[in-house]
Amino acid sequence: MPDLLLELFSEEIPARMQAKAADDLRRMVTDKLVAEGLVYEGAKAFVTPRRLALTVHGIPARQPDLKDERKGPKVGAPDAAVQGFLKAAGLKSLEEAKIQRDPKKGDFYVALIEKPGRPAIDVLAEFLPVIVRTFPWPKQMRWGERSAKPGALTWVRPLHSIIATFGMETEEPDIVRFDVAGIEAGQTTRGHRFMAPDEFSVRRFEDYEAKLHDAKVVLDPQRRKDIILADAKELAFAQGYELVEDQVLLDEVSGLVEWPVVLMGSFDKEFLSIPGEVIRATIRNNQKCFVVNDPKTGKLANKFILVANIEASDGGKAIVAGNERVIRARLADAKFFYETDLKTKLEDRLPKFDQIVFHEKLGTQAERIARIEWLASKIAPLVGADVAKAKRAARLCKADLLTEVVGEFPELQGLMGKYYAQAAGEDASVAAACEEHYKPQGPNDRVPSDPVSVAVALADKIDTLVGFWAIDEKPTGSKDPYALRRAALGVIRLVLENNLRLGLELIFVGAHGFLSYGLILRERQNFAAALEEAGKRISIVKPIAEAYEAGYEEGAKERLRAKAAADIPNLLSFFADRLKVQLREQGARHDLVDAVFALEGQDDLLMVVRRVEALGKFLDTDDGKNLLAGTKRASNILSIEEKKDKRSFDGAPDASLYKLDEEKALAAAINDVKREASAAVANEDFAAAMSAMAKLRPAVDAFFEKVKVNDDDAKIRENRLKLLNEIRAATRTVADFSKIQD
User: Fold this and answer.
1) What range(s) does the DALR anticodon binding domain occupy (predicted)?
2) Distance between CA 283 and CA 268 in Å, rounded?
3) What is the mean pLDDT of residues 185-205?
4) Residues 567 and 620 in one domain
5) DSSP letters along 572-619, please?
6) 305 with 352: CB under 8 angstroms?
7) Is 591 a member of any domain?
8) Cis bond leading into 440, ω under 30°?
9) What is the CATH number for 210?
10) Strands, DSSP E only, in 58-107?
């Protein structure tokens, strides 16, 4: 079957747009082929800085003939309905339709529509120009004399030529005839802008790719990446260095060149006094170059690797020299910024935060830092951190946002705080927390283990979550502008990977109360005094009812208590959802998380996970499966009868009404299981709790086999329904079995 070759040749396509453009081209063309009945065998898209290409093989030479039956109105329907049917079906009169008889619904008209398939090349010529014109570039431009005329083409960069060939592998392909804004499709392209700029003709993909390579163009982006990475490693190794790999930079650089040539340059050793991350950011961001390590010291060497787009006649000396000049100037700026920053201590920068708004409803950065400092001091004892160090780290952790280096390279925030704290003689844990309080920032990011870092990281993320919950700025659907889902996952990972025992509800209560109290009082008095007063009155170790007895005005007190009563359960539910995501990635069942979180007071994430693990193992056994089935049966019967009687069957059963041995045995088993399971749960031995639950299974099985629940005697029936409710209550010692899927 024939193959399609399509190339859109233009000026330089921005590297950040290339991968998506290749995917979009493949998707748009193949979707249209399938919609037209042209089912292909395979397709692959390619992109370089100057061309977007697609090959689709195994396309049928012709569309299949279409035969369709279109049902019309009933015989005898109004004329308007008949005329509408004729027009839609393309019939001249009812004589061209047939009548289909239906003894139940009556006779109705049917139109037989036969549409012969067209040659695939004609179909391509029809929709390819539409795809070119409607291509979804993030940004587009007009150019040339025709740019102002109606129907002028907009494209990411000026489009110069189009290749569109279609044909069998063994035959000379045909050109798909169409034009876009005066640019006619053909079979001619150009090679490398400088090394092979002349036009040449191609026929099909294999010919196209080979001739491009001869014309100094590597078409496949992945092959360009492989060449760059292999050559860079080899060049660094030959000079006694190790390449510092950077996948994001590699992706970008491969989109800047069509014929990659790897070269090495150097910079003055004096710049090595700057932190290595600053050197790397400077060279990476400004010149798109890689840095190398000296394996003897494990630190950066005064060398860099660049990727040129040409085989220069001088071996690349002029290219290297030009990059060295620019990098020297950029590193001189970075060194000046760094040395200037060192002259001002982090703490001396803090007053500026009074004028910087964090969020219009949550106050300034200074207020946020004060909240983090207070919250870190309360969390520190719970995670084994020194309180004074945690407060100090929380106070300083945001200060590097006001430094020159972070202003130039925002991605270095936190890291530079560590360096500046070290330079000022701060404690090692305080300095480390300045960097690590942002972590983890994603599923693959490192989780801090130093207690001071953990305390500040938790305080930072919890303040963010509680704050935005308090002002009703929660994530909705796919929208999460404040990265609250990431913050919650960060809290979860900090807790689980450090095996921390934390009651989140009380921490949320304290954070919510401190935030609300400070925001109310700042309008009536000096903010520092307001926060000092709030710190004395709010405690995370008080229950929710007491946490808001902090001396508020009467009206405000009630409003805040009600707001917290709504916000905090909602936030805990949000954490349950995030924990489900986390555990699902590790292979756990989300319904088990629901079953555990459904119990009251389940805000200790570590215990939730351990309970989920024990529950999962239990349900994998025959005892677990059968007990789940029995519990579900009891719940279903109760639900039906409660709905019928419009009442619940709470309360202890009357032992004197037990008529059968199976009733008595079940009641005894429930009492034993409740006692054993409760004791095991209290000791946090969830495996033992599950073993206790397993003892309930024989009694439940026997009860359902021998006992008629809906007895004719109303009192007996009610008593047996109460006994079923006891089954449900007993299992809730470990989890809400009604949340577990079969």
Assistant:
1) 637-729
2) 13
3) 95
4) no
5) HHHHHHHHHHHHHHTT--HHHHHHHHTSTT---HHHHHHHHHHHHHHH
6) no
7) no
8) yes
9) 3.30.70
10) 66-74, 98-100
Query: Of the candidates 215, 248, 264, which is a domain's last residue?
Result: 215
pLDDT in tens, 403-448: 999 999 999 999 999 999 999 999 999 999 999 999 999 888 999 9
Q: What is the domain count for the chain?
A: 5
d(CA 521, CA 552): 9
Range of 226's domain?
221-342
Note the pTM of the prediction, 2 decimals. Answer: 0.79
Amino acid identity, residue 56?
V
User: What is the CATH number for 368?
Assistant: 1.10.3210
Total number of residues shown for the chain: 742
| Amino acid present at 588 | A
- The residue type found at 300 is L
Per the model's pLDDT, the better-predicted residue between 306 and 96 turns out to be 306
567 and 637 part of one domain: no
| Cα–Cα nearest to 456, from 390, 508, 370 | 390
CATH of the domain at 662: 1.10.730
pLDDT at 68 over 60: yes
**Is 586 inside a domain boundary?**
no
In a domain, 78, yes or no: yes
Residue 628, by phi and psi: left (phi above 0), alpha (psi -120 to 50) or beta?
Answer: alpha
Residues 143, 198: one domain?
yes
Q: Do 699 and 719 belong together in one domain?
A: yes
How distant, in Å, are the alpha carbons of 298, 398, 462, 478, 560 from that of 374?
Answer: 39, 15, 12, 32, 20
Q: What are phi and psi of 733, to 5 degrees?
A: -60, -35
Residues 129 and 191 in one domain: yes
DSSP 438: T
pLDDT tens digits along 598-632: 777 678 888 888 888 888 888 888 888 888 888 88
Q: Are residues 164 and 98 in the same domain?
A: no
Label the pairing between strands 261-266 and 299-308. Answer: antiparallel
Most confident of 100-109, 279-288, 702-711, 721-730: 279-288
C-alpha span between 211 and 214 (Å, rounded):
5
Name the residue with tokens 């150009």.
190
| Measured CA distances, 154 to 12, 23, 142, 250 (Å) | 15, 20, 5, 30
Question: Helix-strand-coil percent breakdown of the chain, rounded to 5?
Answer: 55, 15, 30
In a domain, 348, yes or no: no
- Claim to verify: residue 303 and residue 322 sit in the same structural domain: yes
Q: State the Rg of the chain over Cα.
A: 36
Do 553 and 635 lie in a common domain?
Answer: no
Ranges of H-type helices in 397-526:
404-408, 415-423, 428-436, 451-470, 484-497, 504-521
